[in-house]
Amino acid sequence: ERIVITYNYNQLVATATFNVENSRPITADVLVKEASLVELDLTMNVVIDSAYTNTSTTVLQNLRNAIQTAMTATALGQTIDQVTLINVAQGVIGIDRARILYFNVTGQTGSIPHFIAHNNQFFEPNKVTLNTESI
Fold first, then answer.
1. Mind listing the pLDDT tens digit for each residue in 79-105?
2. 88 contact partners, CB below 8 Å, separation of at least 6
3. For the chain, percent helix, then strand, then coil, each to nearest 5?
């Protein structure tokens, strides 16, 4: 029987493996694996407060920065949901309202209310689309 093993080479994995091998008990069987990245897509419509219409470009840049920060996992196994993203958007000065049209893993259809990463996964934003609409 033929077994094919494919590796995604990552120098950190090799370094960690050698360090573990040097200090592990002789009877321990330890395997070091690379965490997998899950990319998320988001389409959000926002209403810019009328007092900030002259600076709407800056408001949208601030919103994009805040959304991308919120959609970037800082640890494995984290959760992100639509409610959090809406709260982040409405916390940006100049944003009056926000609603999500689409939120899901890149390549998936339909919208999900939240994404929960596994213990070996982390997530980052892939395609973030921000649209403005009027009241």
1. 999 999 999 999 999 999 999 999 999
2. 66, 67, 70
3. 30, 30, 35
